[in-house]
């Protein structure tokens, strides 16, 4: 197997290597065979359609054929674009030990860390503070590290938590260095470590005190006066006006920690800056992308570091040498000139043994980026990603126009941060009217891009269009870990938001199927197209969930006979080959068949539920200009009972949003009824040959097996019960659907 060693010159030690994954060569043999079977399937479909039309066949024959052609066309398009990821997947390795041989620590590039939060009740400030502490404690020169916290909710509760975190950091950072701590996230460290020695006990008491105070202010909804004991705290909280709200407040910037400060060992501390950008009612704020662009501009006025780490509030760093690891790419002269970012995988804490809800997302969060890495690089997933600041300002060859010289990404700020940064400029660039008054097309040509709820995907797409390359870094020890939803409904709501974001790109002027393939080529354009087509999977999955079952209920056969028609062989081959290859790919990525089964079941639920609602909301917004959803912030607060149910491997449906569960419940009901009808009535009573309806019986049985958690939820008598209203609505809709299709199948 060929291995590429990347080094800047013969005398310089290598910083990274890569190799092509072995299964890529197998897929290049498998793909043409599978494509031939798909082509044969469409030949049979169109042959049947022409036969029906020429013989004046009834609607019952024509309509199902048209629907199957539509479903299989979308399946084929998604499969075809997915081959981009399977063409040349890479595995990389970094030589972190060689970084200091290439560049001494004094010459390391400075780095800004952006952590975004928006609601102290959905995203607990203590969790966000823990995330900040985990990166403040990086094994990196502290004078080159600055952490910015964007509080889009403009909450005093969040800033108080970070004031407490700044005090604790002076003790926590030297403790981590002295003891070689790897998990530098305090909650994780104290949750897995016995505090036997006096020093650890002392630090733990300090952390518990900080945590108690931060949680207390959230519980009572304000910062009590007895907690404000220092003059700088009074000055900081005075920046809120009596009329300040979450949606209407001035720019608030507070330096909580700076390099001039010292920790308990006498070493300098990193910078820690709190920012709440200005918001006013009626002025578009562009959700998370707008907050990130405000951070981009404000940080340019203060530190303007050439590297930027982007993290979500529920994300934590789990490896203190991560920054040195990414320097293996950013210091490599063969890669650096066109390198936009280094993306790390999304890995989640608290997954139950068999990943009940498929939260690992192996196909999209692991197999896809590995495959993209062999092309021009992976798409950005919005967190755990290190950017070169320069990539937000045009192509590698040409710098886009900027508003003023202080915003130049190449500007070097030599002076250390002071407690009085240039507030005149900060108020200007952090103001809610700045982008409208700027001539630099923020969100269109520079910065994080607007136009989709998934700004990370759209931004990276346009960066690749501009000529930038990206890298996927997946070390043996995870660099980051995040929280995962532990209830089905909260997960489906999150997936709906992702689906809506992809649809906003798919049906826009940035559609990767056209502009992507035209500018990036079939492979890279196909990779981005596959992501955008993700929610379109709902169409074929919904057709196959309902059409065979409804046809069976009406006694109509819509597939080739099992034994008499040789075209039947296409169906088991296409089904088994597709599912078999995906399971093989899952296992190659370190998973197992049970996790794969849970993941494919969850994807079917996403398609019949989340993606269908995403389509509905998209067209409601497009046609009527109305929307039922804002950014859709996922709550990071998990109820203890929900967590226990999840750990036991039991579906927790919840009652907060029962409507989103109606479509998969309908599929469960119609599959079960059709299977019983087909097996007991069509074959048992009417004596119909099972070969005529064998494919439909199999598809209904497959739906029943995948719906077992829903049947269990219907009959439970405890808090895990599927909401009765959901079951009733689903049953009524199935009856209506059966009556509506009567005239089609009986015509």
From TrEMBL:
<keyword id="KW-0808">Transferase</keyword>
<dbReference type="Pfam" id="PF03552">
    <property type="entry name" value="Cellulose_synt"/>
</dbReference>
<dbReference type="GO" id="GO:0071555">
    <property type="term" value="P:cell wall organization"/>
</dbReference>
<feature type="active site">
    <location>
        <position position="456"/>
    </location>
</feature>
<dbReference type="GO" id="GO:0016760">
    <property type="term" value="F:cellulose synthase (UDP-forming) activity"/>
</dbReference>
<feature type="transmembrane region" description="Helical">
    <location>
        <begin position="693"/>
        <end position="711"/>
    </location>
</feature>
<feature type="transmembrane region" description="Helical">
    <location>
        <begin position="531"/>
        <end position="556"/>
    </location>
</feature>
<feature type="transmembrane region" description="Helical">
    <location>
        <begin position="58"/>
        <end position="80"/>
    </location>
</feature>
<feature type="active site">
    <location>
        <position position="152"/>
    </location>
</feature>
<feature type="binding site">
    <location>
        <position position="122"/>
    </location>
    <ligand>
        <name>UDP-alpha-D-glucose</name>
    </ligand>
</feature>
<keyword id="KW-0961">Cell wall biogenesis/degradation</keyword>
<dbReference type="InterPro" id="IPR029044">
    <property type="entry name" value="Nucleotide-diphossugar_trans"/>
</dbReference>
<keyword id="KW-0812">Transmembrane</keyword>
<dbReference type="InterPro" id="IPR005150">
    <property type="entry name" value="Cellulose_synth"/>
</dbReference>
<keyword id="KW-0472">Membrane</keyword>
<feature type="binding site">
    <location>
        <position position="152"/>
    </location>
    <ligand>
        <name>UDP-alpha-D-glucose</name>
    </ligand>
</feature>
<feature type="binding site">
    <location>
        <position position="288"/>
    </location>
    <ligand>
        <name>Mn(2+)</name>
    </ligand>
</feature>
<dbReference type="GO" id="GO:0012505">
    <property type="term" value="C:endomembrane system"/>
</dbReference>
<feature type="transmembrane region" description="Helical">
    <location>
        <begin position="723"/>
        <end position="745"/>
    </location>
</feature>
<dbReference type="GO" id="GO:0016020">
    <property type="term" value="C:membrane"/>
</dbReference>
<feature type="binding site">
    <location>
        <position position="312"/>
    </location>
    <ligand>
        <name>Mn(2+)</name>
    </ligand>
</feature>
<protein>
    <recommendedName>
        <fullName>Cellulose synthase-like protein G3</fullName>
    </recommendedName>
</protein>
<feature type="transmembrane region" description="Helical">
    <location>
        <begin position="29"/>
        <end position="46"/>
    </location>
</feature>
<dbReference type="GO" id="GO:0030244">
    <property type="term" value="P:cellulose biosynthetic process"/>
</dbReference>
<feature type="binding site">
    <location>
        <position position="123"/>
    </location>
    <ligand>
        <name>UDP-alpha-D-glucose</name>
    </ligand>
</feature>
<feature type="transmembrane region" description="Helical">
    <location>
        <begin position="568"/>
        <end position="590"/>
    </location>
</feature>
<keyword id="KW-0328">Glycosyltransferase</keyword>
<feature type="transmembrane region" description="Helical">
    <location>
        <begin position="660"/>
        <end position="681"/>
    </location>
</feature>
<keyword id="KW-1133">Transmembrane helix</keyword>
<feature type="transmembrane region" description="Helical">
    <location>
        <begin position="602"/>
        <end position="620"/>
    </location>
</feature>
């Amino acid at each position: 197997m060929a291995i590429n060693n990347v080094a800047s010159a013969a005398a310089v030690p290598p910083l990274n290597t890569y190799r092509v994954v072995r299964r890529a060569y197998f897929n290049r043999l498998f793909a043409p065979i599978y494509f031939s079977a798909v082509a044969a399937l469409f030949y049979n479909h169109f042959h049947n359609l022409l036969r029906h039309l020429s013989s004046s066949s009834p609607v019952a024959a024509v309509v199902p054929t048209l629907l199957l052609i539509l479903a299989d066309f979308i399946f084929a398009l998604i499969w075809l674009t997915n081959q981009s990821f399977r063409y040349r997947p890479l595995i990389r390795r970094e030589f972190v030990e060689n970084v200091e041989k290439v560049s001494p620590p004094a010459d390391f590039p400075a780095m800004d860390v952006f952590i975004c939060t928006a609601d102290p009740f959905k995203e607990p400030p203590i969790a966000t503070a823990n995330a900040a502490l985990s990166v403040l404690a990086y094994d990196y020169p502290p004078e080159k590290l600055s952490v910015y916290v964007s509080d889009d909710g403009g909450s005093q509760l969040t800033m108080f938590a970070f004031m407490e975190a700044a005090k604790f950091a002076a003790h926590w950072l030297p403790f981590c260095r002295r003891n070689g701590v790897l998990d530098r996230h305090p909650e994780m460290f104290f949750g897995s470590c016995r505090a036997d020695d006096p020093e650890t006990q002392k630090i733990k008491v300090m952390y518990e005190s900080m945590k108690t105070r931060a949680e207390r202010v959230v519980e009572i909804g304000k910062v009590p006066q007895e907690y404000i004991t220092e003059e700088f705290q009074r000055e900081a909280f005075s920046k809120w006006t009596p009329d300040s709200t979450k949606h209407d407040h001035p720019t608030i910037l507070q330096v909580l920690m700076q390099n001039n400060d010292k920790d308990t060992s006498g070493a300098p501390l990193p910078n820690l800056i709190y920012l709440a950008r200005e918001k006013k009612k009626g002025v578009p704020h562009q959700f998370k992308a707008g907050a990130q662009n405000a951070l981009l501009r404000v940080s340019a006025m203060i530190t303007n570091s050439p590297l930027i780490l982007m993290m979500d509030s529920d994300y934590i760093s789990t490896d203190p040498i991560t920054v040195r690891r990414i320097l293996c790419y950013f210091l490599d002269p063969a890669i650096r000139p066109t390198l936009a970012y280094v993306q790390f995988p999304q890995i989640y804490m608290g997954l139950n043994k068999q990943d009940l809800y498929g939260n690992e997302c192996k196909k999209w969060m692991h197999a896809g980026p590995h495959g993209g890495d062999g092309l021009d690089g992976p798409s950005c997933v919005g967190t755990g990603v290190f950017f070169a600041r320069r990539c937000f300002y045009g192509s590698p060859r040409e710098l886009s126009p900027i508003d003023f010289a202080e915003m130049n990404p190449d500007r070097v700020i030599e002076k250390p941060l002071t407690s009085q940064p240039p507030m005149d400029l900060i108020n200007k660039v952090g103001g809610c009217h700045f982008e409208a008054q700027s001539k630099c097309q923020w969100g269109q040509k520079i910065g994080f891009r607007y136009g989709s709820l998934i700004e990370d995907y759209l931004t990276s797409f346009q960066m690749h269009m501009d000529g930038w390359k990206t890298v996927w870094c997946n070390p043996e020890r995870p660099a980051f870990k995040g929280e995962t939803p532990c209830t089905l409904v909260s997960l489906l709501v999150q997936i709906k938001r992702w689906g809506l974001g992809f649809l906003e790109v798919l049906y826009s002027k940035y559609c990767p199927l056209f502009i992507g393939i035209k500018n990036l080529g079939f492979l890279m354009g196909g990779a981005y197209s596959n992501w955008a087509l993700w929610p379109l999977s709902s169409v074929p999955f919904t057709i196959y969930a309902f059409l065979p079952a409804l046809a069976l209920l009406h006694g109509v056969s819509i597939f080739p006979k099992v034994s008499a028609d040789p075209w039947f062989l296409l169906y088991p081959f296409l089904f088994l080959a597709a599912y078999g290859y995906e399971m093989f790919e899952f296992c190659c990525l370190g998973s197992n068949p049970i996790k794969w089964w849970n993941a494919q079941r969850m994807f079917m639920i996403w398609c019949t539920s989340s993606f269908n609602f995403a389509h509905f909301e998209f067209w409601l917004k497009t046609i009527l200009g109305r929307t039922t959803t804002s950014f859709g912030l996922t709550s990071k607060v998990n109820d203890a009972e929900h967590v226990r149910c999840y750990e036991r491997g039991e579906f927790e449906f919840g009652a907060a949003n029962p409507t989103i569960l109606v479509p998969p419940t309908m599929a469960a009901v119609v599959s079960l009824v059709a299977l019983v009808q087909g097996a007991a009535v069509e074959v048992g009573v009417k004596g119909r040959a099972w070969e005529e309806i064998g494919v439909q019986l199999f598809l209904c049985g497959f739906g029943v097996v995948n719906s077992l958690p829903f049947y269990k939820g219907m009959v439970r008598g405890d808090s895990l019960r599927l909401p009765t209203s959901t079951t009733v609505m689903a049953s009524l809709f199935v009856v209506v659907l059966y009556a509506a299709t009567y005239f089609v199948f009986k015509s």
